[in-house]
Each structure stands twice: as C-alpha cells, then as structure tokens.
Amino acid sequence: MIRLESFPLPTRSPPTGARSLRAYPTLRQLIAAALVAQAGLAIPLAGNAQSADTAGAPRAATASPYDATRHDALVGAVRDGSTSPSQAVDQLNAWAAQPLAPAVRQRVRADTIVFAMRAGDAASAVRYARADGGIAGLPDYALEFVFQAARSIPDHALQGEAVAQLRSRQPEAWRPRVLEALWLTDTGEFDRAETVLNVLAARSAGSDLEQRVALLEARGALNEARERPLEALGNYTDLNAIDPGHRYARREGTFLLGQVDAPTAAWKEAQAASPDMFTPLERASMQQQALGRSLRWAIAERDQAVGHGPARFVRMDEVLAGFEPAIQEANTAEAQARAAADEESARAWRDLSLQLRYDRMLAWLERGRFPAVIAEYEALRADGVNPPYYALSAAAGAYQQQRRSDLAVPLYEAALRDGGSAIPTPSDTHVGLVYAYLDTAQFEQADALLTQLETATPPLLRRSPERGRANPQYGAVRNLRALEQLYTDRPAVAERSFGILSGLAPMHSGFRDGQAQTQRLREHPDAALALYEELLTDSPDDVSVRAGYATALMDANQHRAGRELTDALEQEAPESIAVRNAVRMRDGRQAARLDIEAGASWGGGALSNRDWRTDTTLSSPLIDDQWRVFYHQIFAQADVDQGSSRLARSGLGLQWTEGRWGASGEIHHANQGPYRTGLALGLNYRASDAWRFAAEIDTNSPETPWRARRADIGAHSAAAAATYVVNESRSFTGRVQRMDYSDGNQRDAVGLSWRERLITGPRFQLESTLGAEVAGADRQDVPYFSPSRERAVELGLRAQYLTWKRDDRRFYQVVQAGTGRYNQAGFGSGALWSVRYQHQWDIGDALQLSYGLGISSHPYDGRSERSREVFLTISVPLQ
C-alpha cells in the first residue's frame, strides 16, 4: 500500500484554528474600549445632598413620586451594591410613567440606559435609546452606553448616531474618536478605522494611561476583525504590559494564542490565570485544543524517531492518557448542568466531550488501536451522533486496517462530502478512498477519483511566491497512479510509470520502492532484492522500504532474514500498513499448513472406467526458518474392466528451503504393488530471475496407470524440468520424464510449453498455453495403455473473472478450454479437447479453495473417449 506519510494529513486531527475557544463569544461585543468597558459608574448626581450611604436608599421599585433626591439615592445604592442595576431599571421605569419635566425625563431615560447595560440587557438599552425622539437629548455619559448597547446587538446605525453626537459635542476629545474607530471596524471600514487610530496615536505621545489603553484595545479589535491574530496578540501583549490588571486583554490574548496555532501556550496561560479569569468551560475547551496540538507533535515525533522501537510512542501515550480525565470532566459537568436545568451549558459540555472523543479516535488510529476506533465510532452512532468529517475519516481508516473496506467506503465518501473545502486535494482521505475502492472491486470509481486528483494537482503550483515552483503533491499523485496500475494487475504499465517517475526524481524513495514492488510482482525476486538493498543505502530508516525488503526476502526464500526484519518492524512500527502486510506474510510462511487435492472422473475406458483420488499433505510450522516436517497421504481407487484397484500410500518427509535452493525427501509405504516401501526426492534451484530448474524421483510413482496397478505392476519415475521466466505474463518450460515399470517396460516423454497472458486487468484475465509432447514406450504387450510412439499438440485458454472482492478476500470464476491433435503410432491422429469450469476462493491468508467440473475427449487406440470430472483443492495455513 502507499505510504500515507507522502501526503499531508489534514484530516488526522481537527483544525485548531477553525473554531473559537470562547465559551461565550458574545462577550467580545461588550467591549467598547477602556472608556466604557472598564469605566466606573459614570452617572452624575443632581446635587450633593445625598450620597451612596444615604439612609433610606430604595431597594426596589416604589410608587413614590419622583424627585432628584430619590434619584441621587438610587444612583448611590447601585454604586455601593445595595441595589442591583435591574432593580434600578424597574424603579426608573416606574418614575418614567409619571408626569415629568422634559429635562428630568431625559435624565431618567439616560440612567435607565446605563443601568440596563449594567444589568446585561443591551436590547432594552437600545429600545430606551430610540424612545422619546432618539438620542439627541441624552447626556454625554449616556451616549457612551448607547454606543456599547448598539455594538452588542449589533445596531450599526445607532452606533453611528452615538458617535456623531459625541464628536459634535466634543470635537477635540479623543474618546469619541476611539468610539468612531470601533464603529468603523464593526462596519468593515478597516482602512478608515486605521486612519482614525493613526491620527490619534500621533497626537497621543505622552498621553495618560487611559488613552493609551483605549488605543491598544481599538487596535486589537481592528486586527482581529481583519483576521490578523498575530498583530492583535501583539496589541493585547502591549496592553497587558502597561495595564497588568486588564481583564479583557488577558482573556483575549489567551484566546488568540490558540488561534495563532499555540493552543498549548494558551492552555498554560489559562492554568496560570486567576480562577475567575476563565469559565470552567473555557478552560476545558483550551485543554481540548492543547491535547489536539500535542497529538500532532506526538505524531511528528513518532515519525521522526524511526529505529527507536517502542520509545517512538512514549509521547503519544502520554497525550492519550490526557483524554480520559478530560472526557470524564466534561461528562460530569454536562450531568451537573442538566441537573440544574441549564440546557445551554449542558449542550456546550456535550459538544466538548464529543470533540475530545473525536480527537481520541484520531490518536487511537495513529497508535494503531484500530478496534478501539471502531468501537468508539459505533458507540457514537448508537447514541445518534453524526461525527465530523475527520472522525469519519479516522473510522474509515480503522475499518480499512481491519480488512473491512466495504464499511470504509461509505465513511470516506461521507467525510469528503461533509468536509468539502476544508479537506485539501489530495489528502489522506482521498488516498484511503482510492484504496478502499480498489479493495472492494470498484475499479471504475477508483480510476475516476484518481483522475480527479490528477486534474486538481498540476505539475506547478498555481499560486506561489515565484512562477514555476514545483507542486510537491504532483509526484505523490503520479506515484499513486502507478501503484493503482500495479495493484490492478497491470504490472507492465506500472513498470513503465515507475521508470518515468524515477527518471524524473532518481532519489525519490517512493518511486524506487514502487519499482521494487513491481519487480516482485513480475516474478523477479533477485531484481527486487537488489533494488531494495540499493534503496536502503539511501533510506536506511524508511519503514515502508524496510517492510518491502522483508517481503522480498521471504519471496526469495530467505526466511530467517525476512522474519527477523519483520519481527523488528512489528515492535517498532505496528501501525504501518506496510509492516502489517509483512507481518501477515511472515505468519503465513511460518505457519503449519494443510493442503488437499481431490478429484474424481468417469466415462473413459482406456485408463480407467471410474476413479477418485485424494492427496493430502500436512506440514509442520517452519523450523529454524528452513525446515518442515510433513505427512503425505494418498488415497485413490479406480474401476477397470478386470475389477477395482485401490491405492493407500502414507509418507513422512522433510522439506528444506534456503534462498535459491529447495529440497524434499519422503519415505512412504503403500498398501499394494511391488514397490510398497519407497522413497520420493525432489530438488529445486532458482539460478536467476529467468531460469528455474527442478528434478524429482519417486520409487513408487503415483502416475502409474490404474490397469498396471491392477496387474500388480509398479513404476519408478524420474523427471526434470527447466523454466525460463520472462515475467509474470510469459514463460517457457521444458520437461523430460522416464518411467521404469516393474514388468521391464520403459516410457520416455519430452514436452515443451509456452504460457502467455493475453489480457490482464483488475477484473478479467486471459491466458494461453501452447504445449507439445512426444513420448514412447518400449513394450506394447502389456495390460495397460502403452503406445510405441505418441505425439500431442494442444492450445489452451484460461479465462478468469473477478466476481467479488473485499480486501484480501476474492472470488473468481474460471473457464478453461483446450483443443489440439493427438497422434498415436498405428492409429493415426484425432482431435482432443477439454472444458473446465471452476470457482476459486482466496480468503486472505486463511483459506484457498477451488472446485469445479470438466469434460474432455481424447483418442485412445484410434477411438475417442469422453470423460467427465469433478475436482477440489484446499490450502489452509494452521495459524
């Protein structure tokens, strides 16, 4: 599989700057610079007859008639806290209902606006401001609160009216100009706002603290509106330096740290702040963002610490340990909020808990804990939760790793649909979907998606500081296309693609890895090993390259080196797809195995009238990476004209493989015949990627004709073969065989064959085999078929159709047909033909099963005989 590390990982963790950390974002609208937000209660008294501690200050609305003394007492009561602003609003409304002089009514309305804002009721404050002819008659102190209320709604028109009134009344004052800059910022007039602030800054050299604070606040608000978080953070940092107790600057600066991709620093700031600076929800939100950032760092640390074994995961495990208490805290807070009937807070805590769970899914995926990711996703769905796109992508990746690409496909598709423009092209989600399509035989969809990625990824960047800058993703997409060609059984096309790519970038490890994989699939194990060894010289720590080298070693029967390298990689990088593939291959090669071949035929007469046969081999696990002990059992029976014959042969053997060589020896015993106890030997040698040689001897040949066995005649056999392999699509084989019968007869045969794949593709393959054989026997006065000379030429076709596929589980339908001519000395020539239909199941590393039926016709002694057959083969690794 492709190394996902070659693509950016935009969907591996949530975008930290995509959402505000603030639990209550509306608080930002309440900031109207230091002149309002941090001002004291600015309401003037009518006189000094009453003060804040005046006896009998009202505590609630009364029906007493209005007078200035009572009004001053109300202001003092709010100032000292004995009356709440909302109570004061009620009292002022009661007075406003009475007949009042115009000046008095304006004062009552002005203070009602101020107290409504103090009570947090901006909407009522705006309503009072627009009553009784508008704001023209309001005093200056009330206009600042009108501005603040209008900004909170927002009501930009009322903001502008308040600014205009203040500027007309205080043309030289700086406070109205600051409010003007805020209003221009709120209405998107950023350049005009900056001009106002620049003019003020030029005039404010040596100004007092209040003015400097107000200017920094306004600049911070402007830079935030312009989406310049770094500049805004600098403004609030300067503000904290001159006014350490400035609450808003401290809060906003901390939030901005999260926005500028420093959530860990924001979390540390929140931890160091006073308890009342941030709400528990705000702190928990910052912790969640910090955990997400720490996860990204941990992933990068893991990827850079190749070759360090389990130590690569220390930091990631530390981050993972932080999720569970954070989730528990959020769940507890949600339960408490629901118990208090605070649904808004409960929803906020619920959202935070879900966000933490999504992040933990990503962490589990990167840690290789795929069952945990799947269990969490299924638990979320059971609760009716629709996870966001990046969590869907994580769940899809986990299903894919667990060999359930059929479940991964809809999740990847949903992730791309829901993520939209938030997911760059290409991304790991696109790559995962390409492979999920391939693993579920949706080859047309995979090709269409790859075409989409190629279209969206030109060779040169469309936007870059200078023209002609290469697109770093272009090569990755081209590499993905070549791998798609390789994995859809088009290795010749893939070889050309990787050759072009390696020519463009000779040192690119991904392209060279693809070349090595192609040589493996083209049945060139030596070439694959050489490419990997060369590549490891340049990239000794590349996990995917080392895993590919391990599989190439096992292909070349260098089992010890392959196993040791795979063992090390399994400890070092268990989450890697390439490593997991190598582990599966190692386990299959090392495991014990049961192989069964069975068949039955009927209808012929020259060889037998009816026969059946089972050939079973039970092999031990690989011993010392070279040896296997095996038990071999043959049961067979045939009916001939003279009666029936039965063969039961049991053997115990030893098999050895190391590199280019392979050998086996078996001592066997049969139930009948002159050679009941015997020996079978086999030898294989791979001289190069092109030449393979084999030889075998059996002192009681299983190929002895049934009519010979019925006559108590046995046979020794010896055979040798040489194969020239061009590639997976073409090979040539020559074979010689001698059979020495116990009755003194000898049969010699020489054969040649040429195999050629005519059509290759992911769904359909067509192969042809052209074979010719010449044979002859010394004697014809024997009770079995033994012509003095025979020749045959046959052309066979094998069509294979992929009917179903899910990851490494496949179902094929196979049709084989052959036709040719057979010539027998003394009887002339005749046509021969055969047809077979077969089902073939490959259930990953767990089972290979095929079964089918066939019919054939062959001339014997000048007479064509038709026979029918059924067959079954099973191969099961016992692991």
From TrEMBL:
InterPro entries registered for this protein in UniProt: PGA_export_porin_PgaA, PgaA_barrel, TPR-like_helical_dom_sf
Descriptive protein name: Poly-beta-1,6 N-acetyl-D-glucosamine export porin PgaA
Organism, scientific name: Pigmentiphaga aceris
Molecular function via GO: poly-beta-1,6-N-acetyl-D-glucosamine transmembrane transporter activity
NCBIfam families: PGA_TPR_OMP
Signal sequence range: none
Pfam families: PgaA_barrel, TPR_19
Domain PgaA membrane beta barrel, first and last residues per copy: 598-870
